[in-house]
Amino acid sequence: MTNAKSILAVALAGQLGVLQGHLDKFRDRIEKLFADPPDHDLFGSLPGAGEKLAPRLLGELGDNRERFDSPEALQCHTGTAPVSYQSGKFEKVRFRRACHKVLRHTVHLWADLSRHKCPWASAYYHKKREEGQSHACALRCLGQRWLKILWKMWQTHERYDPELHQRNQLKHGSWVIGRLSTQNAQCTVAEMQEATVQNTL
Predict the structure, then answer these.
(1) Positions in the chain short of pLDDT 50
(2) Domain extents for the chain?
(3) Cα separation of 60 and 67, whole Å?
(4) What is the pTM for the complete model shown?
């Protein structure tokens, strides 16, 4: 029995080695193709997208700017926008199922990674969680917000500029700015308390 299982393990390991070799070739090819398009810098500047999700986002959106005439069209296509319907006094909002599943999954992963790279994304996510939303729902809301930003970048051919985005948030009185200020103040207090403790040791 042990001999049979050992042969199976060796065979499976060999197959995994071959598969990994093909995956490495695909990754190398994707990196080379991603380096060529004019939109490389645009998608490459997205916080959290990285070397794997940025090419996937570019591949799914393409370069036809007329494909989505508004951020809402892109959000519906991706599946981050909810579906609302009403019958008389009855009104309900539900999860959008008719969408591009691969792109939705990609945006979900991107939103999750962005909250570790971008302060406002982290603040937005945590606010949604405090409102009682699940992890997946909070990421979907964050992805919805990111897609609006991405659509604008895509139309203007501009890289993501965190300072410009912060100025726009200030201009429109976004609640995210106020939350960031509170978080920064809390961090400063925590740092001061820690320094006081260290000085007394």
Answers:
(1) 185-201
(2) 15-160, 163-201
(3) 11
(4) 0.78
